[in-house]
Amino acid sequence: MKKKFWVFLLSAVCSIFFVFVSQAQQFFTNPDSVGIILLRPEGESQFEPIGSGVYLGRGIVLTNWHIATNAALLILQGIDFKNEDQLLNYQIGSRSNSQINAWICLVAPNFNSPRPDRLQYRFSETNTDNCIPYNLTKWQAFRPSPPTPSPIIPTVPLKQLLFLDRNLEVAVVKLAPEELDAIDLSPPCLEIQPVKQGEKLTIKSHAYGRYPAVTVTATVQDDKPMLRTDPDPRVPVKNRYAAMSIVATLPPGQGDLVGPGSSGGPVFNRNGRLVGLVWTGQDLPDGTKEVWITPASVWLPKLEQARIPDEDLNKVLDASCPARL
């Protein structure tokens, strides 16, 4: 009888231990699919960090709308875009997408004219003087972020823009997957269940261009996504825009772990599931910092309705996490 008791006790202790280890591994999971988004200006040989992203595997990268398009950079400069230009929702086959491969040409106003044209830009189908591409994918690249720097990590050019939505602050871009196959990345799954108030989330990003990525834990303040206006003081008030967001808070002293360069950085729950992307945030008077997250639970259903080619769309939808019992 005693022998059976000790065998039972040992078995129970081992079970508890393995459950604890499993939960710890889930909470401290370190997905290596996070990466830095780099830009190589035309005519330059060096890449510059501009944001963060996450690799879903099979050649698909997620990042922010304002990282994947140059329109956001012009908004920062105070260029007053028309709504129909800056609200481009990229759906293949739609006439409204005729500008997706166009160039934005800045126009100097003619003050000598009795009625000067206040439009500060025009679109061109070709690259001419003083023009910049509407989207940056031709000069952008993705570099995975391992726990420690490694010379074998490739910098892979982004090839195609598949989906773009400013109201969701999300972009889906495509690269050549074979260039990443050799380093055995572990892409996360997309969590469609909403986060809960008080839930702890792990944010990984390349804040201020840091590489490898830095990690911080934030606490969810609300669980109902809302359209929130970008509070970035660098953006002229008239050009600020709203995107669907949930808010999480960083404790005092950790605000520098999320900042410029964090845009597009993945946000994981305690099980290592991808629940959203960082898109903006603001410092609070008490020393804490709000991080605004565009949630996968909102934009994943939108992607299901998007006119992305079936093969590429399935790559995104297949990344949905299995339902939890």
Task: Give structural notes.
Helix content is 19%, strand content 30%. The protein is an alpha+beta fold. The strands form three sheets. Strands 1-2-3-9-8-7 form a six-stranded antiparallel barrel. It is globular and about 65 Å long. Residues 1-31 have low confidence and may be disordered.
In short:
With 325 residues, this protein is α+β, with helices and mostly antiparallel strands. It contains seven helices and 16 strands.
Structural class, judged by helices and strands?
Answer: alpha+beta
**Number of beta-strand segments:** 16
Portion in beta strands:
25-35%
User: Biggest β-sheet, characterized?
Assistant: 6 strands, antiparallel, barrel
Strand order of the largest sheet: 1-2-3-9-8-7
